Batch of 4 targets.
Target 1
Amino acid sequence: MFKKVLVANRGEIACRIIRACKELGIQTVAIYNEIESTARHVKMADEAYMIGVNPLDTYLNAERIVDLALEVGAEAIHPGYGFLAENEHFARLCEEKGITFIGPHWKVIELMGDKARSKEIAKKVGLPTVPGSDGILKDEKEALHIAREIGFPVLLKASAGGGGRGIRICRNEEELLKNYELAYNEAQKAFGRGDLLLEKYIQNPKHIEFQVLGDKYGNVIHLGERDCSIQRRNQKLVEIAPSLLLTPEQREYYGSLVVKAAKEIGYYSAGTMEFVADENGNLYFIEMNTRIQVEHPVTEMITGVDIVKWQIRIAAGEPLRYKQEDIKFNGYSIECRINAEDPKKGFAPSVGTIERYYVPGGFGIRVEHAASRGFEVTPYYDSMIAKLIVWAPTWEVAVDRMRAALETYEITGVKTTIPLLINIMKDPDFRAGKFTTKYLEERPHLFDYPEHRDKEDFVAIIASAIASYHGL
């Protein structure tokens, strides 16, 4: 086992990794910049080093991070998610410098980061894929020919990268011809290559993903699926495990194919195979994320498997202690992302200082966060400040528990997604499992909630009302 690990990240995921390392008896090293010198992950780590002043490049400075690991005697680097987590050049640099990258091999990151090649692998092992081009499109003429064969609407998408960039929905031939160059140029600018794919556009889809875990000896298991359909601006907001869509038989079927695909590419560490599900419940593979996911806690809650610890153990050369038959799925778990955003203003980021911060607790409630009273929400990083996770033996109880936990979660000083999330938990359609990736945009009434009032405001209002009543 490693003696010291450098955590190349910040926020809640850095805190999560540091906690896992502490439980494994591993010393931890945090990195930070000038504006985060008092951040929670800095305080939690055994050692912490400021490696930059500019907050925009601190966690992207691959060479400096690896050099620091060597300087302080860290044998491994955990990248978390985002930043350098799926950067094959960073993983390769670690290998060249003799540092263990806690994740898959850089060649696998490179392979699965290419949507065209990952789709070919999926087809090879029998995973269903969305009908469309077999590889990179040559030009708009080929795109038009394929679109006529599979029928509109279709989706143009960049072969490299993600985050919704280089993607265009085309509902007819005119839109396809107009959007081809736009998508190509956007992909070229964002990812350094304009390669495009074309797929049938699945309308009103669900977003389903399977968690896999593999070691360096060819052992691979899956930990079931999550439903991540409830999103804003193509970013997940609520995640559920297991999904309400799949039967146990479907879970076993798709899970076996996911394991087969991971074995095909020699995958080790934690990873996620992502799918879209159509209105008939058919799943289609779209891509693989070669890192820990933000929503990994819901899978941990229903399986009892600590995914982050196993990432570390696998990187250190330990074999998996689980076989597929050992994995049992118990109850339901929901995760809500607590973002510093104003849902009523198009989820605009809300910056400022957190004035009051009260975290819910109790049976079946878990909070992953790096926030606290006095925490400064800046415009430099992702707006997520915490994740609220609940577990319950049934779906109905899980929803009720999440609603109650949200109602006792208190954050003042910045706008948050909490009021919207409370409305989602109350919504009959959500409770009935009637949601797709279009859920929020089709239900504007969910954004109808009163503005937050501090407790002092309510006290003042009541005092004023009493005073008026008595004529004082």
Target 2
Amino acid sequence: MNFGFLTPENMALLTDLYELTMADSYYRAGINDFTTFDLFVRELPENRNFLVSCGLEQILYYLENIRFSKDAIEYLRSLKIFSEEFLGYLKDFRFGGEVWAIPEGEIYFNQEPVIRVTARRIEAQIIETFLLNIFNFQSMIASKSARVVLTAKDKSVVDFSARRDHSTDASIKTARASFIAGCVGTSNVLAGRLYGIPVIGTMAHSYVMSFPNELESFRTFAEHFPENTVLLIDTYDVIEGAKNAIIVAKEMEKRGYRLRGVRIDSGDLAELSKKVRKMLDEENLNYVRIVLSGDLNEYKIEELLEKGAKADVFGVGTEMGVSKDAPSLGGVYKLVEDKGGPKIKLSTGKITLPGKKQVWRVVKDGIMIEDIICLEDEPPPSKDAYPLLVKVMDRGKVIIDYPSISKIREFCISNYSKLPEEAKKIRGEKWDYPVKVSNKLRRMTEKLEKMIHYHQ
């Protein structure tokens, strides 16, 4: 399991200051009972019909390995905020709780607990920021990537976003999340190494411009990488570039190789791709794939396919890597139960559902019908329902055999087939999937609300 740049030695400090000040206050007040927190998204972004769970592997790694090193504690001491008693407690800090979660690659919706943590209050509090940081980002990217992949239909999508992503670590997590959502690979070499994602690349315009002419640049590249030659044909003129690519393809055939593809990165992609496809086919080069790129997103891909673009692969960068149309996800982490019983927040527009819960999904004829949020001890709401939350950690130890990233990807793609067709649309009126609350949970919520108002 690889985590990227963050190491066990410093990841304990990736938290908001108030998590630690609250924890210190709890410690000094002797309040460290068992609590349960839910991580969930209040509302779907304006242009999202569904979300994809992503980031659990890194969360579990963090929970198993979080430690406050001597240097970390010295830094906290230098802030002159924390009690020595609390700093002493942190020397032996370990997460020893229980975690239930929706598996990575699963579809989920607003208000549904995606991760449920039961642990000592201090442990559960300190981890809040990190869990939200990891889950919100990767789930946001996976959800955006899912839209791109679904819109591309049978065409492949490659993550080209590294140079535009918001920081180095974000680019690695973007490659991971987009691959899980269905991309076939990434241009990010470090992500390939860390996560075992196929790495894919072509060439830049600067390479073509570094030679006396385009044909010579193509010949040189094909000589050096005969097994992996994809030629960028729009540096000067796409049609002339295609002609030069055909010459090189024929030369490669004589040497026993095949040109893998050509890439078009500018201009009228639909019309140019059709012309290039015709030119290639006329030369019996039907095996040469066409890669289209250039500020693509799901909307542009849909338009290209509607216009009959001849694409085999879409290289998608900025728009997917920063989820440009929905660049943040409102995931929250809220207390729902402690030794005093179920807890509820009543802030305007931010009311929470109390108690330990399970989410049941009803599927009929292979299609998702509705989700029902129930209390943990409630029976399945119907014979067609199955639970989404799975126990993944007990007493601070991971208790599942974590699947490979390829298996997570397969699982995610299989879940797309369960989505109603309305959920896959990227234009038109927003579609709302039915997420219901069980009668028992609703009664508990109403009871707690009345009780709190009575005692105010």
Target 3
Amino acid sequence: MSAVPAMIGLGPDRPRLIAFYLPQFHPIPENDEWWGAGFTEWSHVAQARPLFRGHHQPHLPGELGFYDLRLPETRAAQAELARDHGISAFCYWHYWFAGRRILERPFDEVLRSGEPRFPFCLGWANQDWYGNPYRLLIEQTYPGLQDHTAHFSTLLKAFSDDRYLTVDGKPLLYFYKPSLLPDSKRVTDHWRELAHRAGLRGLHLVGEALPSWTPTDDGFDAVVTIALPRRLDDLAWQRPWRTLRSLHRRLRNRPTIYSYSKILRTLLAESRSGALSYQCVIPNWDNTPRWGVDGMVLRDSTPERFRSHVRQALERAVAAPPAARLVFIKSWNEWAEGNYLEPDREFGRAHLRVLAEELERLWPAATVSRPEFGRNGAVNAAAPAHKAVEQRPWL
């Protein structure tokens, strides 16, 4: 594969790529209590072992190492790596349990320091927290509009930051489980009203759900369907024999195993409601470091097979209205789920190079400027000439 420039063209039809970002790579008192002193996501990763013949574990980090997200140098290196391979923004997972926040330190420091100068948005991981084996750690509750008002107030500073990603000038907020939000239309209307009172143009609310969900019925603007095999019981592609095969593997003390190459056609699901739908690509998956034999493995998920997935997603995204050309990536650094783009010891930067090469294939740019962004993360395609960045070879 020929080399491509280190900065990717930002033409008007070029989709924005948004990578989910996990902040659980630093110790917190709660994890010390539940798992032992010094626990971070790396604890699961380093202790992982193969569970069947041909099972590759552990997956270990490459050039970024076993980092600590309390360090600004780590956060800067991540942003530079993402930017140089065509990723437009991080979607930081955000946790709010009826007024209680958790794992907030990395993002709070990004917000407070103004660094790195890299666009972002937030995703509310609104679900219960469980430990293995299925031990409830924190329950997700919804006390009412007063709690939602308090929640909005904690997010307003982020929404007002000039790095925050917007759609039509409206800050994008992602909901992991929109179906769990009681009286969601009332809540989303309330949040939009609070946004207008705060001087924002509104909110762009995105929910992760099955293709049959109509987001506008519940007050959302768009849907992202992430059709991982673990959810196929609820989808039309599921067959009874697959459920039986999964049960058989569990009885044999093995995780559920699928071939990444064989289920690629199901990973890009379109909304069947006719609503605005964003694509999501998945480079790899193996959450046995967290769940052991209760986990699920996408076997043979190589960078070249990921290329086919990315190509289809980008081509579909181009058909959307320009302001809504978003592609989500699951994920930037979910290491204990075996779901990451960051360089590892097996493939190095190969997954990142796939993204850059596919973007360059569709939107070539011999020499481009480092993208500037104005208020609320709006990309300025006409960056001044003195911002040009010298070409760097791919590593």
Target 4
Amino acid sequence: MINKVLIANRGEIAVRIIRACRCMGIQSVAIYSKEDASSLHVQLADQRVCIGEGPARDSYLNMDHIIAAAENVQADAIHPGFGFLSENSTFARKCQENGIIFIGPDPDVIDRMGNKSEARKTMMDAGVPVVPGSREAVYDVEEAKKEAERIGYPIMIKASSGGGGKGMRVANSPEDFEVQFNMAQRESANAFGDDAMYLERCIVNPRHVEIQIMADSHGNVVALGERDCSVQRNHQKLIEESPSPAIDDATRRKMNEYAVLAAKTVGYTNAGTIEYIVSPAGEFYFMEMNTRIQVEHGVTEMVTGTDLIIEQIRAAMGEPLSFTQDDIRPTGHAIECRINAEIPEKNFMPSPGLVQFVHLPAGNGVRVDTGLYSGYQIPSLYDSMIAKIIVHAPTREAALLKMRAALDEMVVIGVETNLDFQYQIIRHPTFIEGKADTGFIESFMKLKGQ
């Protein structure tokens, strides 16, 4: 049994996990940096431990401090949330070595699926459709050029250990390949300490569609349907929705089946996401697996009536899933908008500072995951996301209207946000028609002259 969970994260996801623990009668422990002393997750938790100075490397990325904190408060388990150490196999192993349950997959599975080129090979061997590309990691630019000629241009150059758009470049021709490869490799080495790269054929104007899966230690793997994450800027998602307006039922069924196959192939447990890229012709390919809970998990919860954080904790305790595949019958339509403290008109420059006043939207089918409150000082050291507005309605049209109302109702005074920017996207004809691909925001910004 798990009686006490230490949450190795901050912000809205830490608040979300604390609330799930309360629903299960489990005590929660918040860790925090000195910069985060007044954060909402620190105030809501049953216990709290300061683990270092403001910079993440001194606090939320300091494995030894986090493990020591868990031992000092006698926590049975650690939930890593998303970001920070959530996909770090070294941290997962340290938890195991110290007798602490890591609420996530086995570290060996994290290694296998966290390395993008290794994950591609695994999926190829399992028969899961994969974007044409290199089978092995490449390190040398001359070797990479030969692979690029074999695959065909345009080429997507990606870091094997990458994520969040880092270490990723597109080469449209042999003439610019070397420059783009070297830039991506340097960025990968700086961000991840790894210069292993892999190549994929670049699918032009694709959709980004992912499948949420949950798996337990009893061999049960369930697909909970898809989320369309195509609206993104610099590979960072802005809006997610379910179901995807870009795929039909037959494609949806196949994507779910392959997601289950992928998870079973690697012996996966806990929450994970299989990410696909979908061509304009409707062909879908495995892109990567995220071995953690995702920012947008609430979208799936809204259409399936599940609580994925509770399921994560149950799975970590060795319990079977509380639902079967036949129980998952998504209903209605859900949309999420990520609200960031930033200035879209100034190249999305972060806007930290004092929140003088905040009003959050509410009502039937409206959910806001956030760590905001009036008087909160948004730090400058961390990600600029401050809230997620999630709406659910019987149809996509109704969900769009509900999201417009929610965005219109939310008020944040003291810092700049992207609320108006999100409102413009929700009202854009291309998005309304369900035709926004991964290049939509770039085209949208050009039209705005930004």
